[in-house]
Design a protein that fits this description.
about 500 residues, alpha/beta, Glucose Oxidase, domain 1, 2 domains, 15-stranded mixed sheet
Length: about 500
């Protein structure tokens, strides 16, 4: 069969298939295609270079929020801030702190211990942190559970790094009363690694109490120089820390340590809309997606300088908007109010979600369920859903009931929970809001991980590259079903 005849045969076969296809199946296929088109239209705007990567506190934020607020108003949503002074846009003040100064002086028996240049770094999350003439206490790997305030108060805890580069041990020592923590980089991590990580801006909400913590990092050569003239060596300390009967050891050395930061305040905004319920009872269903991304994230000579965030998370905001549009266009809204929250500063540490929870438009205990949508444009049509946060709330059985009703498959395991702490739902969970992510993107972890290893948080997450919307369009229909089910005061009674 030649190419022309083959093409005509394919068209004819498709036409015949369409003629015999059940009307309901054809309608569903057309509806999915229309939802994909609607999602793409919003993503094309939000991920365009004109929006400059949607960085909080920039003109890109202003364009993003104006566009979304106009879309939501035209859809038929009302302001959900419940604050006449700030309709639609709830202010979020974020503090950015960049390390600015680092000083460390050590003494033994009144004589200064000289360290090699560039062998130590002191950092703090506050404006300034300082200790003077504090004695050093060697705590090994920092794993001894009995270390308490009596041993640590007023002392600098000296901690071995080795291959354990987590920050949990440092935080526990500070919380237990250590005046400061000095980590000895005796493993693979170098001071350059630490500087590259810790010299970047740190972010926090303006209302959060920060400061008082003082952390230091010293090279193995710096620690060897610090111990010079004592009866100890770094190797001896490492050997003692490895013994089962290890006990903290006071070092015959004192330290005066200081770290300062430069502070910048950024005023950014959450966008909150509401679809009023037909039988409101003071409870609500909440849908969430973060609108922010990294803005201009590369430098010349790179050709592409903007992190457009097409998948992360223009696709999630587009899905959020599509859910609002479908619910608003339906003849009857759910019984309960449905809130739509586009958060800021998710990429800076879930800060917008925390700000929402700390100043909510309704009591948090009145939120029946919250569903976060993040990086939804990954999986193709037909991919099973996964619950990110499975087992962490009482929502799972109800979600599974909805899935059976909608003929959607849900992955039975909790492997997707590895991502639970990396999304806005986690911030809400910390405030006792029952929040999960239910997405097809997380139902195919190899495909998701490929995205994380390639385009994620890079300029290549844009529409110059193919974007998959089949699964996202199906997810939108499932979110609508979730809104109706959880919004039904008979199916899901008020908490």
């Amino acid at each position: 069969m030649n190419r022309g005849r083959a093409r005509r045969f394919t068209v004819l076969a498709a036409t015949l298939f369409a003629l015999v296809m059940p009307t309901s199946l054809l309608a569903a296929r057309n509806a999915n295609a229309q939802t994909q088109a609607d999602l793409l239209a919003d993503i094309q705007v939000l991920a365009s270079d004109d929006f400059q990567g949607r960085e909080p506190g920039t003109d890109g934020e202003s364009k993003t929020l104006r566009y979304l607020a106009r879309r939501w108003f035209e859809i038929g949503l009302t302001s959900g801030t419940n604050d006449p002074a700030h309709e639609w846009f709830a202010p979020v003040v974020v503090i950015a702190r960049v390390p600015d100064g680092s000083t460390a002086e050590f003494a033994r028996k009144g004589r200064h211990q000289i360290l090699p240049p560039g062998s130590i770094l002191m950092v703090t999350s506050g404006n300034r942190a300082l200790v003077r003439d504090a004695p050093l206490l060697f705590v090994g790997r920092g794993l001894k559970a009995s270390l308490g305030r009596t041993e640590l108060a007023g002392r600098v805890a000296v901690l071995l790094d080795g291959d354990m580069t987590d920050s949990l041990r440092q935080n526990e020592l500070l919380a237990a009363g250590a005046a400061a923590v000095l980590t000895v980089l005796d493993g693979d991590r170098t001071l350059e690694n630490v500087i590259g990580h810790r010299k970047r801006s740190g972010y926090a909400l303006a209302d959060d109490a920060t400061g008082g913590d003082l952390e230091g990092f010293i090279t193995d050569k710096g620690m060897a120089a610090l111990l010079k003239g004592t009866a100890l060596s770094l190797k001896a300390l490492e050997e003692s820390a490895a013994r089962p009967d290890f006990q903290p050891l006071a070092l015959d050395i004192t330290a005066s340590l200081e770290a300062t930061t430069h502070e910048t305040r950024i005023t950014t905004h959450n966008l909150i809309g509401k679809l009023p319920g037909r039988r409101p009872d003071g409870t609500a269903v909440l849908f969430v997606a973060h609108w922010d991304h990294f803005g201009v994230c590369a430098e010349p000579p790179a050709e592409d300088l903007i992190c457009n965030g097409a998948v992360d998370n223009a696709s999630g905001v587009a899905a959020l908007t599509a859910v609002a549009e479908k619910l608003s266009a339906a003849p009857h809204p759910p019984d309960r109010d449905v809130y739509f929250l586009a958060t800021t500063a998710e990429e800076l540490g879930l800060l917008g979600a925390h700000a929402f929870a700390e100043n909510p438009p309704l009591p948090l205990k009145r939120i029946v369920a919250a569903f976060n949508i993040d990086s939804d444009a990954i999986a193709p049509k037909g991919t099973a859903l996964a619950i990110v946060g499975r087992g962490m709330t009482k929502l799972d059985p109800i979600i599974e009931d909805v899935a059976r009703h909608e003929r959607r498959k849900i992955v039975a395991n909790d492997e997707a929970n590895v991502y639970a702490k990396r999304q806005d739902g986690w911030a809400l969970l910390q405030h006792d809001v029952p929040a999960v992510m239910v997405e097809s993107a997380y139902g195919d972890l190899p495909r998701l991980e490929h995205f994380f290893n390639t385009d994620y948080h890079r300029p290549s997450d844009d529409l110059k590259h193919p974007i998959e919307l089949g699964g996202a369009a199906e997810d939108v229909d499932f979110y609508v079903a979730l809104a109706r089910w959880f919004g039904d005061i008979r199916k899901v009674p008020a908490p």
